[in-house]
Amino acid sequence: MNRIFCSIIIVLSIVSCSSIKKHNEHLDDLISEKKLKSDTDFIYKKLQDLHPKLYWYITKEKLDFKFDSLKSTINKPMTSFDFYKKITPVICEVRQGHMFVVPSIKQYSKKETASIIKRGDGPLSQFDFEVFNNKLYVVKNKSNNKTIQVGSEVVSIDGQNVSILINDYKKNFTSDGFNQSFKNNFLGQRFSTLYSLNNDIKDSLKYDFSFKNELKSIVIKRQIIDSTGIKKSKIVFTREQKKAIAKKKDIFGYEAKNKKYMRNLKFIEKDSSIAIMKIQGFKEGDSKEFYKQSFQKIKKYNTQTLIIDLRNNGGGRLNEISNLYTYLSDKDFKFIEKSQVTRKASLLYADYYKGGGVGGKILKTIFAPFYYPIMYFSVHKIGDNYYSYTNSKVKKVNADSFSGKVYVLINGGSFSASSIISSNLKGSKRALFVGEETGGAYNGTVAGRMPLIEMPHSKINVRMGLMACIPTYKTDVEGHGIMPDKEIIPTLEDRIKDNDPELNWVLQDLKANNTDVSKN
């Protein structure tokens, strides 16, 4: 049996390497007008077949016209990437933030990928960026070159004007509805990704930085980053220590790629009267245990105020936010509406085989006869529409639920699941919101299962949601996020001084309301 299993892996690996080589050889091939128009019709038909809220923010007539107009401009052969730049803005007219168009770019084998990783962090990932007034700034310098100051403007990269790049990249993605806070946040947070999609992976880049009216050019090379400059000795852990570390990583949701925990809880007063729960994403690890332990501590310490930090939380699992809400609601509740899909078989298009490597795909193949019937029969017809019942049943408040004052910190990076739980907290008047309009829409989004649909000829992929996730509470204002009760938008100066204006305002507000708050 082991021999058969190993043979399958070897064969699949050879096929994979061969397909990568073939793919890369044809990246610059010209594709005929007929095939490009065929791809246009193909993806629009898929959107109509699978997207449950295709005309939420644009009428069918207008979207039909935009796709027809696109086809009329295809009057000569072009490369897949040139076609990507033409079709992406049209697809983005749907205005669904989970929808993302991925160009056909150079692929790398596992060996090549491992070699890149071994050589260290790329020249883009050595910085954290933010966009202020349509300009890109360094807000964290992780490189070994410490002469680059936080607050430095990135004027150009390899001779390309960054302001022009930003305007160009804005056409390559969309937000939920008419929201702009998500776009500004995404441009900074994902600039490295957007740049790499358009320029391939680089081992070195020439940056032109501007700081205090001084312009300087610096070449940043791929390298292993040592933030301390101190040679680290290898620490040997006992078996019990290893178990404790593994358990902490699981409960707090350790993300190995970025070396950070998804969830954290801390008390900032001597009497533990104020707790800050920072959630960077609703994913990774045993979230149930984290919330169970956290709210038991909050109850034990008689905490009066809970500050939930959802800034730059891009979302994640519906099950997790539904469970978290059981600790925050003051009554039994229905978290979201039944999730609308386009038809009985919609969820069969989900990316079941995504991730997991060759071995994982073999196991998924074994369990596929069970998975697909479950997905099919989880959808029910009500009237003329089809729905999945995920998290739509009434839930009870947890015995350890928190009844004190709740503040929620939000910004344009608060998206998807973090916006859905914010909709319910806002609608139920359970929390006071501080910061910036959320990136995700108040009235829900289209996400859940999100397959990549590949166009046959150009090999461009479009990620689209299959399920309309609609919170219980809604607003009459369509196409915008949860608005803060107190708007605070950080400035570049805040980043330079490492100042947290949103959190500082909350602490001052508590102090003004006769809450004994010591300086944080």
In short:
This protein is of the alpha+beta class. It contains 15 helices and 24 strands.
How would you describe this structure to a colleague?
The structure is a single chain. The longest helix is centred in the first third of the chain and has 24 residues, at 2-25. It contains 15 helices and 24 strands. 34% of the residues are buried. It starts with a helix and ends in an 8-residue tail after the last helix. The protein has 520 residues and is α+β, with helices and mostly antiparallel strands. The protein has helices at 2-25, 33-50, 60-73, 80-91, 110-118, 162-169, 181-189, 191-199, 239-252, 287-300, 318-325, 357-377, 417-427, 492-496, 501-512, and strands at residues 100-102, 127-132, 135-141, 153-157, 160-161, 204-211, 214-221, 254-255, 260-261, 263-267, 274-279, 305-309, 333-334, 339-341, 379-382, 385-388, 394-395, 405-410, 432-435, 445-447, 452-454, 461-463, 467-469, 486-487. 36% of the residues lie in helices and 19% in strands. Helix 3 packs antiparallel against helix 4 and helix 11 (318-325) runs parallel beside helix 13.
Main sheet: which strands, in order across? 10-11-12-18-19-24
Radius of gyration: 24 Å
What composes the largest sheet?
6 strands, mixed
- Please give the count of helices: 15
The low-pLDDT segments are: 1-15, 515-520
The proportion of strand residues reads 15-25%
Structure class? alpha+beta
Helix content: 25-40%
N- to C-terminal separation?
Answer: 61 Å
Total beta strand runs: 24
Rounded mean pLDDT is: 90
Oligomer: single chain
Q: Which geometry do the CA atoms define?
A: globular
